[in-house]
Design a protein that fits this description.
The chain is α/β, with parallel strands linked by helices. It has a domain of 189 residues: Rossmann fold, CATH 3.40.50.300. The strands form 4 sheets. The protein has a 6-stranded mixed beta sheet, sandwiched between helices. The two termini are 23 Å apart. Bound molecules: adenosine-5'-triphosphate and magnesium ion.
Length: 318
């Protein structure tokens, strides 16, 4: 792919299931992410964030529209080969608990869950250690994965995903379930990674703005399977777009390069009125309206994908 070509290029990408459920609805997602950009994908539960990430990970085809990843068009390229060039970090993924941390990172070189020791030479081992150092985990190299904390494991997963030197790193809720020090260590590592690898593009799905690293350059806000806003983080991670995205009056602040969000003072949760109509607090939103799609008969493929890549036990090759 050319240097200026987007790492991710989606044109009116839509996803629906064979049953007609609209996961990414009309008009679809049109989005380009380039080298050196660090995107946050934000939205409420069920907004379609993981669905969008599965397109970027080449684990799912769009039902309509066009998706190119690393310059290759889904549907016209070998997805298995393409996936080997994409780093994915999924909290659900696991490597065998008995594996050493270094061994777990090495499995990233072969895209396997079980280590293929004869395939790892001096260069691979040096790279694994270098990545562990970059993620602040050098001291864990000899430890069994099963003895690592959640936060440590998450950083090990990122080091593993970086083994094949991917141009694109995808992270689905990397900070979820981490305590404050573990989250801060993770976000610090991601910021250092961005500085150390200026060509790398990342996409991070998050529920909370507090879970975004200071390296975040852009954001895409999703709601109900449609884009609410996208663009530079400084414009998108702001009161108006975030309030529209969550249908809640939100105050966004940024300090030391990090974001935080909270409901505006005086806000009260929506409660049902006696006649069944919702009583919502007064707020102005700019919610994007995706036109409902009623034709559940047209899909040829529902895009239901092979299981997501990762380090699930029992897998031998991703
Ligand atoms: N096979 C399916 N059939 C019907 N609906 C589905 C199917 N797969 C996903 N969905 C629905 O599509 C919507 C989007 O799912 P997705 O996992 O992309 O959301 P998300 O934004 O990642 O949510 P979360 O924040 O909870 O992880 C959800 O409402 C989900 O229930
Ligand atoms: Mg999700």
């Amino acid at each position: 792919m050319g240097v200026d070509e987007p790492v991710l290029d989606l044109r009116e990408a839509r996803v629906w299931t064979a049953q007609g459920a609209q996961l990414l609805r009309a008009p679809g997602v049109s989005w380009a992410a380039r080298r050196g950009e660090h995107w946050a994908v934000i939205g409420p539960n069920g907004a379609g964030k993981s669905t969008l990430l599965s397109l970027a990970a080449a684990t799912r085809h769009p039902s309509a529209g066009a998706v190119s990843v690393l310059g290759r068009r889904l549907g016209r390229t070998n997805l298995w080969a393409l996936r080997e060039e994409i780093g994915t970090v999924d909290a659900a993924s696991t490597v065998p608990a008995w594996l050493s941390v270094e061994g777990a990172v090495l499995t990233g070189a072969t895209g396997t869950v079980q280590p293929l020791w004869d395939r790892y030479g001096v260069a691979e081992r040096a790279r694994a250690r270098e990545l562990l150092a970059l993620l602040g985990c050098a001291h864990l190299a000899g430890r069994e994965v099963g003895t690592c904390s959640q936060g440590e494991r998450q950083r090990v997963r990122i080091a593993r995903a970086l083994m094949p030197a991917p141009a694109l790193l995808l992270l689905d809720e990397p900070a979820t379930g981490l305590d404050l020090p573990a989250r801060e260590a993770l976000l610090g590592a991601l910021a250092e990674l961005a500085a150390a690898r200026p060509d790398l593009a990342t996409v991070t799905v998050a529920h909370h703005l507090e879970d975004l690293s200071s390296a975040t350059t852009h954001a895409l806000l999703l709601r109900d399977g449609a884009v609410v806003a996208m663009g530079p983080a400084t414009e998108t991670l702001a009161d108006g777009p975030i309030s529209a995205c969550f249908e809640l009056p939100v105050r966004v602040t940024r300090q030391d390069g990090r974001w935080s969000a909270r409901a505006a003072a005086g806000w009260r949760a929506v409660r049902p009125a006696p006649d069944g109509a919702a009583l919502a607090p007064a707020m102005a939103t700019t919610r994007a309206t995706g036109s409902p799609v009623t034709d559940g008969t047209s899909p040829v493929t529902d895009g239901t994908s092979p299981a997501s890549d990762g380090m699930r036990e029992g897998d031998t090759k991703r």
